[in-house]
Amino acid sequence: MNPERETSWTPPADAGEQPRQVRRILGLFRPYRGRLAIVGLLVGASSLVSVATPFLLREILDVALPQGRTGLLSLLALGMIFSALLSSVFGVLQTLISTTVGQRVMHDLRTAVYGRLQRMSLAFFTRTRTGEVQSRIANDIGGMQATVTSTATSLVSNVTSVVATIVAMVALDWRLTVVSLLLLPVFVWISRRVGDERKRITTQRQKQMAAMAATVTESLSVSGILLGRTMGRSGSLTASFADESERLVDLEVRSNMAGRWRMAVITVVMAAMPAVIYWTAGLALRFGGPEVSLGTIVAFVSLQQGLFRPAVSLLATGVQIQTSLALFQRIFEYLDLPVDITEREQPVHLDRVKGEVRFEEVEFRYDGKGGPVLDGIDVTVPAGGSLAVVGPTGAGKSTLGYLVPRLYDVTGGRVTLDGIDVRDLDFDTLARAVGVVSQETYLFHATVADNLRFAKPDATDEELHAAARAAQIHDHIAALPDGYDTVVGERGHRFSGGEKQRLAIARTILRDPPVLILDEATSALDTRTEAAVQKAIDALSANRTTVTIAHRLSTVRDADQIVVLDAGRVVERGSHDELLELDGRYAALVRRDAQLEPVA
């Protein structure tokens, strides 16, 4: 098993992308600017209180202690204690507010990405691995948590602290301040280089995490386990996963070690700066320079030490932000995915749908490119009538059916419902009007009742039972130990194929759509199970417009109209008897089915 690494859409590169990306990130915080303003005030107040402590210390060393003024000493000491207390209170409050804002931004991002994906056409999901989608929402957004919850506040706090501390240092002695800040531009340059390196590695790491998540999702699903065990590939799947994990180990190590030595040099140099200040002050005094009091030197070194912590943190924050840009870029890629199936600005809403469906010179090409999958389809299904679509594999049968509920959009011609182009209808009308039952039945890992109520959340127990009876599945559910509270298992694997199909039919009966698309709903079932499911389908199809995509022709003999597709074009149409009399493609398909029919 060697799955493709990356199958998601990626936007074209743009030289001005990073500034635009930063603006978009800042825009995420715009709805919370009131709370952020409070955080800013708390940060400013905390910074001012912090820089006041060295000045109090200078007064203690230069005035209170030499002059023996115990009252002033007590007052200054209490001031230092009060400053520390006040700074701590401000810190707790700003952490509370900033964390709340950060989590709200995370929530907004997750919801925006999920909502965007819900709007994507079926084509997007057929070419994108499920694990890749899950990784974007879980790993990428999760990886940004530190940035959006604490980095923004840390940035504001550290900038404010650095500015306030530098101003205080200049007020104490501007010459010593110049000496302290000589190497700062070099440190900023180093941190930017480290940030760029980590950003590149983070992009690779997140792609690798997405690939590993896709491998897990595919191979550890119920279907994946069954396939791996029955094919004797469990060992090779484990080896493949180990290779994916090994690549991730290498990227994680590189990410954590990127620029570590350079940042360590910055830390050592900053830690050595107090000695440089003492040395500079001593030389100035020795060679007749301006005299600096002991209290000023101690206060200055205290400020300098207070500067180093936010300065180093600020440099590290810059690295973190650059690293996070890679994660934001991957999220913005999904938020910028082109949505090709959209609702009109003023869509048509129908309270009542009769159910007439028309395909008028319909053409369809995947992604609007390549050869036509459907070409010149012109078919009308009257309200309450039935159409069967048959033909060889790859003829475009399922695609034709999926155009009615707009799982795909036509690239030429139009599909109408009651004379209105389905592209002009609002999504709510389409969802109420068109029901789809496909061969690939999907059930959630929830109870039978929850799965049925997905179609109608307010359905009563009596409605559930009535729908299940119509679908020929009520007696089986009632015989289970937990009845309708039975958990169906991952993708419904506690039920057989025919039982899952009847549950899907019951779910559609609850929704009660006037138009029904049956996409090879019985093709994978044995003859006995097919008979039971067909009874359920007959109950479901009664008094509805029905489009049946058929593999087994025995299920479509009674259709009002049958069309035969080949290479995306209608090559025959008529009733069952008319097409048999024509002795063309349909008749050949019927004879093939008769030969394949199992002997009773």
From TrEMBL:
Annotated CDD domains: ABC_6TM_exporter_like
ABC transmembrane type-1 domain sequence ranges: 37-323
MF terms in GO: ATP binding
Membrane topology, from the record: Multi-pass membrane protein
Domain ABC transporter as annotated: residue spans: 357-592
SUPFAM superfamilies, sorted: ABC transporter transmembrane region, P-loop containing nucleoside triphosphate hydrolases
Keyword Lipoprotein among UniProt keywords: no
Chief location bin: membrane
Superkingdom assignment: Bacteria
Pfam family, one: ABC_tran
Subcellular location: Cell membrane
Annotated Gene3D superfamilies: ABC transporter type 1, transmembrane domain, P-loop containing nucleotide triphosphate hydrolases
Residues spanning the membrane: 36-58, 70-97, 162-190, 264-287
Keyword ATP-binding: yes
Keywords: ATP-binding, Membrane, Nucleotide-binding, Transmembrane, Transmembrane helix
Cleaved signal peptide residues: none
Name this protein carries in UniProt: ABC transporter ATP-binding protein/permease
